[in-house]
Amino acid sequence: MRKIAILSDTHGHIDEQILKFCRGCDEIWHAGDVGGLQVIEALQEVAPLRAVYGNIDDQALRRVLPEHLAFEAEELQVFMTHIGALPPRYSKKIKGLLDAHHPQLFVCGHSHILRVIPDPAQKLLYINPGAAGHHGFHNIRTMLHLYLAGGKAQKIEVIELGKRGQLVQD
Length: 170
Description:
- This protein is an alpha/beta fold and about 170 residues long.
- The chain is about 20% helix and about 35% strand.
- The strands form two sheets. It has a five-stranded mixed beta sheet with strand order 3-2-1-9-10.
- Strand 2 (about 25-30), helix 2 (about 35-45) and strand 3 form a beta-alpha-beta unit.
């Protein structure tokens, strides 16, 4: 079984709490609004990273990260982008990309609201891990652990990283 850490909207923030929950994972997926190359570098030291840029990311990040990423993980097709909207109200652009790639997992960020929603019309699982950073309107910083095996998402764990604006001490 593969264990994936999924996070988004770090907005330049990376701390030991985030890294602790990424350790021991087979991969890390970051769904954009990374906020700085230092976040990418810190995550890459922990596990292999797949990431996309978000709307706040500067040209330095846009040079090294794609806007969209389509890949396979444990026999599942995955599509990741930053701004994905909510099922079934995808933008025309996103709907076209989903139709082109036929993912079983659709990972996005942007809203700062953690949501995992089956979308039977697109035959996929919509995953938004919420926001792991401190900037935004969210109350609790969140990320996810996703467990994959046999071509299925076997389990999803919600990880609360603490209140926005407060540093968590171990």
